Amino acid sequence: MSTLALAVRDSSTMLRRNLLHARRYPSLTLNLLLTPVMLLLLFVYVFGGVMSAGMGGADRSTYVAYLVPGVLLMTIGSTTIGTAVSVSMDMTEGIIARFRTMAIHRGSVLVGHVIGSVLQSVASVILVGAVGVAVGFRSTDATVLEWLAAFGLLVLFALALTWIAVGMGLVSPNAEAAGNNAMPLILLPLLSSAFVPLDGMPGWFRPIAEYQPFTPAIETLRGLLLGTEIGHHGWLAVAWCLVLAVLGYFWSAARFARDPR
């Protein structure tokens, strides 16, 4: 077989392996989904009326429209924590050492984790999006092209965060440390424009919230789903995704090339 055919075959095998693990042990994915779902319900039903009034809305629907795009991207960050834990478990429990003795493509292990994580992230976004629709979110002003662009952004963002999560899993000594190291993927959305507009933040804090990876992606997704202006956030979101994906890839490849622990 050619090198490319071998890589595709082995990567497909590793993808099936990771999807089987996710199906047999769904508790990790479900637990990670609880955070964005609970925050969505909390902010809609506890703070939604007050926040909508502050935005000039007559009811909580104004805040629901603002909130859901940020929670969708937070869902991706939450889901990729499971990737860091899964990679760390593979590295510390000896299975990687066994794979290295087999005639399989070296990079297929990481590719299987990445593709599997992206698919899980998309499925998680769909589930949380369904909850968003149930609490009143509507995207009536978005065109078909904007919907496709929104989906592409979600996949690209999931790919970027997944490579970062893989690197975190590779450098962690155990699964617990991997989960702790990946916690910024949940905390960063809390420090972004996911829950409150940038205009309402203190002047010293606003640059931190505005130029971190989540805010441009959230503002872009919000503009695409609601049919509003995106401004400079579009190219900034794509730039962040590409930078994180490239850095995560080379970091992960370099760590994986070392001898297993």
The quaternary structure here is single chain
Order of helices and strands: HHHHHHHHHHHH
Instruction: Describe the main β-sheet briefly.
Output: none
- Beta-strand fraction estimate: under 5%
- The share of residues in helices is over 70%
Got a strand count?
Answer: 0
Q: Identify the overall geometry.
A: elongated
Spatial gap, N to C terminus: 31 Å
Mean pLDDT: 87
Please characterize this protein's 3D structure:
The chain is 76% helix and 0% strand. The protein is mainly alpha-helical. α7 (144-171) packs antiparallel against α11 (214-226). The longest helix is centred in the N-terminal third of the chain and has 32 residues, at 61-92.
Topology:
Elements: H1 3-24, H2 27-45, H3 48-54, H4 61-92, H5 95-100, H6 108-134, H7 144-171, H8 175-181, H9 184-190, H10 206-211, H11 214-226, H12 233-257
Helix pairs in contact: 1-6, 2-4, 2-6, 3-4, 4-6, 4-7, 4-8, 4-9, 4-11, 6-7, 7-8, 7-11, 7-12, 11-12
Name the features:
261 residues; mainly alpha
Short description:
The protein has 261 residues and is mostly helical.
